[in-house]
Design a protein that fits this description.
332 residues, alpha/beta, five-stranded mixed sheet, two-stranded parallel sheet, 15 helices, 7 strands, Anthranilate_Pribosyl_Tfrase, transferase
Length: 332
Amino acid sequence: MNQLPSAEARLDETEAEEVFGWILDGEVADDDIARFLVAMTERSETSDEIAGAARALRSRLIPVAAPADAVDCCGTGGDGHHTLNVSTAVSLVVASTGVPVAKHGNRAASSKSGAADTLEALGLDMEAAGRSAEKSLAELGICFLFAKNHHPAMARIQPIRQRIGRRTIFNLMGPLSNPAGVRRQLIGIARPGYVPIYAAAKARLGTERTFIASGDEGIDELSLAGGNELADVRGGVFEMRRVDAAMAQLPHSSVEAIRGGDATHNAKALRQLLTGAPGPYRDAVLFNAAATLIVAGKATDWRDGAEIAREALDSGAAERLLERWIAMAAAA
């Protein structure tokens, strides 16, 4: 067994990649890992450490082939707000506009319903969707990359994370380790003040264009409630901005207005969204879809992005895509 460094010691990127390689390869005792992760979270991870840890996870993943213009939109989770599945709905909306979406996700860890839980409640066979991920991405423009299928090294880490019961650096590593190797992303994180640190890590890893966003109330997506911290990462540099819903001509509303529940509850809300239900959930999806479409190069600005997303919902394109995806998985 290897000995972990003191959690108070800041690791450079190379050191972090080595240490997290030990952790992922089972070369450190479980109790030591738990103590190390908690202590690192309490003193706040550095951009070097996040980038190095993500490199360790990336080097151990099972990749999938994807179009060069594929995107992803996801959150780090752990924000404690238990909202409806915004990024899952955004994935359907964006993919229905012709932008390939390689959605990377998992079951719920700290929330009541993760992306996989809600999609399953909608009727998508998750195991079959995993087996046919490359096919659905190539033919439908969407897939779900179930984390457990592509990150076998995480199998021994999950029980440790569940025992800890709080977000750790592993929440931050996931969105940076998409098995499709996407170069364009919208990533929501739950700490507004941490956006520039996370953006610096993303810049170290490289990207064509990525938005790192956090609502002022600590929500891991673009929020309608007030302002949002946003880092626009291009290549190895990033620029900080303030954005709000008015930029997309959308109304403000509270986080409570999109409070979710279990998988059945969230799936019902998503189905209603796809069939035309108005309200804050729709507005939150339009706002985050606008950001994803800007990153993808499909929209020129926030208003344009929201309008493209609105048309995808109102025309029924997003709903039809879901039905085709469910049918393909059922036949797999």
